[in-house]
Amino acid sequence: MQLGSGTDALFWEDRWIGGRSVREIAPLLYACIPKRRRKLRTVVDGLADNRWARDIQGTVGIHEIGQYLQLWHRIAGTLARRGLQHPARCPLCDQAPETMHHLILACPLARQTWHETLSWLRIPCTPPDDEPSLLDWWQSARHSTPAPMRKCLGTVTLLVPWMIWKHRNDCIFNGARPSVNTIVAKIKEEAALWANAGALGLKAITPQTWDVH
Predict the structure, then answer these.
(1) Which residue numbers delimit the Reverse transcriptase zinc-binding domain (predicted)?
(2) Cβ atoms of residues 206 and 138 within 8 Å
(3) Averaged over 173-198, what is the pLDDT?
(4) N or C: which end of the chain has fewer CB within 10 A?
(5) Which phi and psi (to 5°) does residue 32 adopt?
């Protein structure tokens, strides 16, 4: 289908990503979305502030995270074909070519963001350290995370990359300066929204204070 403005197409149901639907691309992730949200979330609404990511409420495991990253990559490609620019070098550190792996795991700002976020939530696992993939890190981190915190770890594994991506876009399109403090502050704000929306495990261990420090 032709995407157009995205006001009529449904994010979770319609075939707006290269002629395919989310259900076809990421069936396990699709199963984590409440039925009501599948029928109401339009493409334009889902893409605004990445609201579609807040719809994920089911059990998130390694396969769901893999499909989440695949979906993210396909959405980014769809938007790029609609005219969004892609810088040659990482806009957050300007030290390496921009790839998904670098942006999420290897960029110094990203690694510091992971450290600050995990410390804030008191999740006692090692932050990403240039693992081959986010899935590799998540699988390792899960083993060193207490069972009551593992659902939260899964949610954080979805949240942090999205907020890094949003900050990346803010730097490119709005002239923002790369800042770990800014990303972490936004993560805390978004975590509150996700917790209120029912994100598994997040509300139970989210600190009562939202102070950045």
Answers:
(1) 76-114
(2) no
(3) 88
(4) C
(5) -85, 0
Give the chain's mean pLDDT.
83
Radius of gyration from C-alpha coordinates of the chain:
17
Q: Which residues contact 7 (CB under 8 A, 6 or more apart)?
A: 42, 43, 44
List the one residue out of 130, 3, 163 whose CA is nearest residue 77. 3
32-62: string of b/e by CB count within 10 Å (b at 16+)? bbeeebbeebbbeebbeebebbbbbbeebee
3-state secondary structure 63-127: HHHHHHHHHHHHHHHHHHHCCCCCCCECCCCCCCECCHHHHHHHCHHHHHHHHHHHHHHCCCCCC
CA 107 to centroid of chain Cα atoms: 16
Domain boundaries, the chain: 1-84, 89-213
User: And the tokens for 63?
Assistant: 């396969």
Using the Cα atoms of residue 116, residue 201, residue 23 and residue 45 in order, give the sign of their dihedral. negative
**Whose structure tokens read 């889902």?**
46
**Overall average pLDDT of the 188-197 stretch:** 84
Instruction: Determine the Cα–Cα distance for residues 93 and 61; give it in Å rounded to an integer.
Output: 30
Judge whether 166 and 175 are in contact, CB under 8 Å: no
Residue 199 contacts residue 57 (beta carbons within 8 Å)? yes
